[in-house]
Amino acid sequence: MISPPSSPLPSLLHRVSAALRSDAVGGLLLIAAAAAALAWANSPAGGSYEALRSVSFGPEALHLHLSLETWAADGLLAIFFFIVGNELKQEFVHGELRNPRRAMLPITAAVCGMLVPAAIYAAINLGSPETLGGWGIPMATDIAFALAVLAVVGRGLPPALRTFLLTLAIVDDLGAVLVIAVFYTETIAVGPLAGALAGLAVFGFLQRGRGPAAVLNASRLPNLVVYLPLAGAVWTLVHASGVHATIAGVAMGLLMRTTAADAETDSPSHRVEHLLRPFSAGVALPVFAFLSAGVVFDGIGAVTGDPAALGIMAGLVGGKLIGVLGGSWATTKVTSAELSPDLRWSDIAGVSLLAGIGFTVSLLITDLSFADAPQTLEHAKAGVLLASLIAATLAALVLGVRAHRLRTPS
To answer: What is the annotated signal peptide range for this record (predicted)?
Structure first.
């Protein structure tokens, strides 16, 4: 076990990093960033907020002269998606997703929890072709927020519930990534995409930990000297290809090696996650939330009167509850899958409501869906925020009551 540094500054950084690895702390930072953005955007100084996120910089020769808001959505969010891909890889190799029978219930719940909200959104927006393209928005579940709410209100709940939520959210995020890649990519440049695939092949080869790649892993050359430029090149090429650049993060995360080689004390997957998670929770996600959540509210009536916002709210709050809870129940009736003995259906109902917290990925898909329709974009973002708030409040009530009963001696 590594002891924390004894000098004041490293010791402080160690404590801050440890705090940022907590689900609750990361979620609270997200909430604070979103609240600050909403307050600024709706204040008399709201124009300066718009001016800030519109500031552009970057090399034009590489088509990377982007606004601050786009850098956050395409760049910083790629780090978050790298961690998501890395978690997926760990689950596939060592966790719940390794055993299909054990993972059947949360996987089916995740799939139903994506399809039902999309169907509800589509049904509400059938008569509005200009908003129908936002059907992917209510499919997403925000891992960071959902785990944070569970950490805050779920003291005393069975650990199996967090495992269920984590598996569901990871599969949900994988589905959202596929939706972005397939349905929200307009044009693809073959050359840059081929270059990105070649870069990913090199990345995967270096992760093998044997053969020529073992020479690099065993050398004194810092890994960042090799992997950071390579990751930057892959991200740049994916961005230039027309595929959303966050896909680069997921792909590299899925290529991480999750087992330690002979000369290693831990796997690259765990080392990189330990290094990057505090930055993702403390910088990447809050900055993205701050630059994306600044919605100007022009009245609840205007928001709920927009079919896009109405579809999002119905899909995230009602659709997730029906899809996750109903999908779980149906799976136990028609397959050999069983609910963990430690869990009750009220627990799954609470998690189903938690899954309605869309936020990060939903905001990203909202940007992709309505980039050319500013008013619809504002209303849709407001719908995401309101739905996430409602879902989080209802989930906290359901899970809080259950946790209280478990903590109180009968």
So the answer is: none
d(CA 404, CA 354): 18
| Domains within the chain, CATH numbers bracketed | 24-185+244-404 (1.20.1530.10)
Residue 229, both tokens: 């430029």
| Predicted local confidence at residue 301, as pLDDT | 73
Among 183-192, 260-269, 339-348, the least confident range? 260-269
- pLDDT tens digit string along 166-212? 888 878 877 887 888 888 877 788 999 999 999 999 999 888 766 55
Q: For the chain, how far is it from start to end, CA to CA, in angstroms?
A: 40
Question: Rounded distance, CA 352 to CA 326, Å?
Answer: 9
Name residue, tokens 């961005």.
Answer: 239
Query: What are the beta bridge partners of residue 56?
Result: 67
Distance in angstroms (rounded) separating the CA atoms of residues 96 and 372: 41
Query: What single-letter amino acid sits at 285?
Result: L
Burial class (CB in 10 A: 0-12, 13-18, 19+), 208: middle
231, 203 contact by CB (below 8 A) = yes
DSSP annotation string for 259-286: S--TT-SS-HHHHHHHHHHHHIIIIIHH
Indicate whether this model's pTM tops 0.85. Answer: no
DSSP assignment string, 26-66: HHHHHHHHHHHHHHHHTSTTHHHHHHHHH-EES-GGGT--E
